[in-house]
Amino acid sequence: MVLSPLVAIAMLCGRLMASSRVYVDVAHDMTDIALIQRAYAAVRRADDRSLRRLIEDMHVDVNAPCGNDGETFLMVAAGHGSESTLRLLLDLGARIEGQDSWDVTALSVAAARANQISSGCCYCEEPQ
Question: Alpha-carbon distance 74 to 79, whole Å?
C-alpha cells in the first residue's frame, strides 16, 4: 500500500478527528484542504455564489468537516445567521442532523445564537 506523504504524516501525528459516532480522516490532500478553507470562508461571508460554485463545480463535500472539532458548513452558517446560506446548504444536501465531536448540531448552534441575540449579547452580529 502506497500512502501519500500527507496521509503518512497525518497518520504519524495521529491526526484523526473522532466523535462518538463518526471518525473523519483529516488527511485530505492539499487541494481538498484549500477548497474546504475557501468554502468555509464563503460561508462566514455569506457569499452564496462562491459557495455554490465550490460545492457544485469544484465538488467540495457539503458535509465536510471544516473545523478541528468536525464542525460543518451548516453549523458555521447557523452561527453566523445567514438564512440564504443556510437554505443554499440545505438545498445542496447538507445534513441537518450532522454533529461535531461535541455532539453539537446546526440546530443547537442556531438556537444558541437566537438566545444570545434576544438576550442582547454584544458579540453577536446581525446578518447582513
Answer: 9
Query: Is-contact 40 66, C-beta < 8 A?
Result: yes
Q: How far apart are CA 57 and CA 52, in angstroms?
A: 8
| Residue 77 burial (CB count, 10 A) | 29
- How far is 101 from 113, CA to CA, in rounded Å? 19
Question: How many CB atoms lie under 10 A from the CB of residue 71?
Answer: 21
Query: For the segment 5-22, what is each residue's pLDDT rounded down to a tens digit?
Result: 544 454 444 444 333 333
pLDDT tens sequence across 41-51: 999 999 999 99
Q: What is the mean pLDDT of residues 75-83?
A: 90
The helix (H) or strand (E) run that includes residue 95 is none
